[in-house]
């Protein structure tokens, strides 16, 4: 297998809800493992997600978990998850779902560089950028 780079998101107790939402947005196969399945049955973390992975037909991999209380908290929005390409219908479909109940900071519209671009922070606090390149050919 070759190397790959993919986002790994941390959540404050709502990883299952968030990852199931992303499964609705992108489709694909979602695998969820709880802390309880990993030896923490009977603890407050038992039903929380220790590791989740969504693999989509488009080749996206999105991972995430509930932040364990004993782990240092990751803070700051020093990242965005970026979706880009020239399949306008697919990308607009993702945008519509991600932007529902989100804070839209840049509406999805044609920009000065010629592409259609938008930015939003979804209801789980994850910032997204969508860029639809003009098809050439």
From TrEMBL:
Boundaries of every Glyoxalase/fosfomycin resistance/dioxygenase domain copy: 4-130
Listed transmembrane segments: none
One protein family per Pfam: Glyoxalase
Protein name, as recorded: PhnB protein
Provenance organism: Streptomyces indicus
